[in-house]
Design goal:
The chain is an alpha/beta fold. It has 8 helices and 9 strands. The strands form 2 sheets. It has a 7-stranded mixed β-sheet with strand order 5-4-3-6-7-9-8, sandwiched between helices. The protein has a two-stranded antiparallel sheet with strand order 1-2. The protein is elongated.
Length: 243
């Protein structure tokens, strides 16, 4: 497919899911952009008028600039060599995309940008690992997860989280942290829930080996709830968040 005389490449499942959460007409910032595939795709398709992209290392930014220039988008996509959200113009962006990092790293980046505590911004987050740590950070920092989608790429299942700041205290428990907004009626989400249940069963066994009966019972119960969700029932009661 060609757009504006330039070839439009296909996004992988992870980035396609991220793109799906970007609001039409808003300005995204892609943090840890690597080759800038996502911002190029978003601008090329007309979903957004402009975009920002950053990476902590200079070589990925140089690579991004080459790709951006080859698609004739240098005037619409601006790049930065920066650590996390440093240098991103908070007054110009709306949707923050952080994909392809560990959940703890994503949480650290979010924690270093107090300006995100504003309902204006949408967070689109794709953790490669430690999704529970990321969810815990979001909930404890006043953010709510309004949508979550599981996707399969290269034989592995990932989650993509869409969140926003509510300004209201949130009540959450361990189940919310491990299950997020995943719906077990979706096969990919069910696979993630079963995997997490297996991890928690191992944690429960470890507690039992240490004589921690309370911990063993707690994590066993969590694993059972996740397994039930993976059989097709929806997790967490009705969610009314809106960003």
């Amino acid at each position: 497919m060609e757009t504006g005389g330039h070839q439009l490449f296909a996004l992988g499942a992870r980035l396609e899911a991220c793109a799906g959460f970007v609001r039409t007409g808003k300005v995204p910032a892609d943090i840890g952009t690597d080759h800038a595939y996502l911002p190029i795709w978003l601008v090329q398709t007309g979903r957004v008028p402009e975009a920002y992209a950053s990476d902590i290392n200079e070589e990925p930014v140089r690579s991004a600039n080459r790709h951006i220039a080859s698609h004739g988008l240098s005037d619409q996509i601006k790049t930065f060599t920066a650590d996390g959200l440093d240098s991103i113009p908070s007054d110009r962006v709306d949707d923050i995309i952080i994909a392809g990092m560990g959940g703890d790293n994503i949480a650290a980046i979010l924690g270093g940008a107090d300006w995100l505590q504003n309902p204006r911004y949408r967070l689109i987050l794709q953790p490669m690992s430690r999704a529970a740590k990321l969810r815990e950070h979001l909930f404890s920092s006043g953010f709510d997860i309004v949508a979550e989608k599981a996707v399969c790429e290269a034989g592995r299942v990932y989650t993509v989280i869409c969140a926003g700041f509510t300004g209201n205290p949130l009540t959450y428990d361990d189940y919310d942290i491990y299950a997020g907004r995943l719906d077990g009626s979706d096969p990919n989400a069910a696979a993630l829930l079963r995997k997490q249940a297996g991890i928690l069963r191992s944690v429960a066994e470890g507690c039992g080996a240490k004589g921690d009966a309370a911990g063993q019972a707690h994590y066993t119960a969590l694993a059972e709830r996740l397994t039930e969700n993976a059989k097709g029932g929806k997790n967490i009661a009705e969610h009314t968040g809106n960003i």
